[in-house]
Amino acid sequence: MAKTAKTCIVCGQVAGSKEHVFPAALGGRRTNSGIYCTEHDNSYSGLVNEIAGQLDFLNAYLGVRPDHSSRPKIAYAEHMLTGETVSVSADEIRFTKPRIISRNPVGDGEALQMSFPNQHSAKQFIKDMEDKGHTVVLQSKPSTHPYITGSVHHKRAFGGPCGLGAVAYMTQTFFAQEFPEIARSGALSNFIAYTQAIAKIAALSGCEQKTEKLEELIGARSALTAALVPFDGVVPVWWDFGPPADARPNKFEIGHRVTVGVDGSDGQLYGRVELFSALTFSMRLGTATLGAATREVVVDIDPLAEHPPHDIERYQVLAAPSRVHVPQRTTEGLAEALANGTQTRAFEKLLERLTEHQLVKLAHAMSIALAPCSTMSPLEARASIDKVLDGQPQQIWRMVTFVVQGLREAMIKGNLEAIVPVLDGLIAHDAQSAIGLSRQAEATLVLAKAALAAQIEEDCAAGLLTEVRIAELMGRGPGLHIVGQAVLAPVLEGFGVAA
Ligand SMILES: [Zn+2]
Q1: Is-contact 235 282, C-beta < 8 A?
Q2: Are 236 and 194 contacting, i.e. CB atoms less than 8 angstroms apart?
Q3: What are the tens digits of pLDDT across the range 256-290?
Q4: Which of 160, 340, 415, 472 is the most buried (most CB within 10 A)?
Q5: Could you report the per-residue pLDDT of 154-181, keeping only the tens digit for each?
Q6: Bond preceding residue 309 cis, omega within 30 of 0
Q7: Cα 256–chain centre separation
Q8: Whole-prediction pTM value?
Q9: Are 445 and 368 in contact, with CB atoms under 8 Å apart?
């Protein structure tokens, strides 16, 4: 690297802070100590917090462990049936507060059936009641149940001025790493002034507040307006749903990608970001002086890698295939994508990939747990299989609802609506029950589990229970077929339809 690479790209003073090139909160594991001074590294923390907050739900669902943290992410969402807050992590969804399931007057007091997120919460509740002068008598031993959730709703929207600002800052850092001399030539000055201005607003929590009296924030907003003058008043980063057609696929199953480049033909300095290969942005960082060499660097990032070196894949070409086309109005990308469903499809595809990722992970864990089965007596094997399946009610429930809803749609198309209430009954939720399901739905789940257990037992005895087979049984065609037979056949017989 050239000697110039050790000065801060914002102020020109000595650089030395160990900033994450890709935000640690999103799973970035690499640091670089030659891009910002400590003050200017810290100045961007509001933007980093903003993007981390916006993506926390996806990160939590995936089990991304933030760098410098030993625990994967937890996000909070709203449970649709009860409107209560639930915590979401890669392993489970749980309520965060005690819930009353039923209450009945008994003598001078009340009999409560309650559910708690954990033991600590239960003890705390009892203590609080006793502190208030109530006498608490446990009428039965507490038992633990998984809770089967319907949909959860995550309130955060992605993007907005600070989301775009965070994406711009990330790309600027990558650009400075790959093109240290251009980053210090003054060619990025306007872009850096913009990221500094939006970072200041984020640091003052100006992204959430619409109206404010805070003097400092008013100053920060006019500074942003001034910083945007060289860009004709338009933010130089935008949603882009038309990424380069011939781009190679991301190296990682659930990967991020940052592309930075210089096109020497007209000096365009550009960048692109794809988060989870689904949320895509482009930006124009500035114009290089005449004679700059054409080069493009693409970095794929695996947010699930625990540490280097297999957390990133970097490659470069001496061409500018991803150069950007500044749209007439930069909001068009998102507006169009929302209008024609492109963004919805991108999210659906992302969710499909996340589901597949979870299934592969589950199959791996189950294959380890079930490995001893083949050497056990049939009785022991069955007990072990039951235990493993008891730990996966949400996954089995996912299969149950998939087959029942699939049949429901087919029946409506075939003018057999009479069966619809029966099918709905099979999977009816009851938010107030201990496990979240109606009695009938609970029975449906038991049927499905038993059918899967029988098949797993048979495969195990025959020596066929590979990891791939487990994935098939727990979420793909073969498993769905077995679940469908078990839960739908009795219903269809009643209606004189062949299963
Ligand atoms: Zn500085």
Answers
A1: no
A2: yes
A3: 999 999 999 999 999 999 988 888 899 999 999 88
A4: 472
A5: 544 667 888 899 999 999 999 999 999 9
A6: yes
A7: 12
A8: 0.70
A9: no
What are 61's two structure tokens? 């669902």
Ligand 1 centroid, distance to 181 Cα (angstroms) = 16
CA 121 to ligand 1 center in whole angstroms: 47
Q: What value does the CA radius of gyration of the chain take, rounded to a whole number of Å?
A: 28
* Residue 16 CA to ligand 1 centre (angstroms): 10
CA dist 31 and 311 (Å) reads 13
Strand duo 279-287 + 237-239: pairing: antiparallel
Q: Which 8-state DSSP code applies to residue 214? A: -
What distance in Å separates the CA atoms of residue 167 and residue 97, rounded to the nearest whole number?
A: 35
* Side chain identity, residue 254: I
Question: What is the distance between the alpha carbons of residues 100 and 432, in angstroms, rounded to a whole number?
Answer: 8
Nearest alpha-carbon partner for 318 in 300, 296, 344: 296
Gap between the Cα atoms of 322 and 300, Å rounded: 15
Burial-class residue 63 by CB neighbours within 10 Å (0-12, 13-18, 19+).
Answer: middle
Residue keyed to tokens 């747990």? 369
Which residues have CB atoms below 5 A from the ion given as ligand 1?
8, 10-11, 37, 40
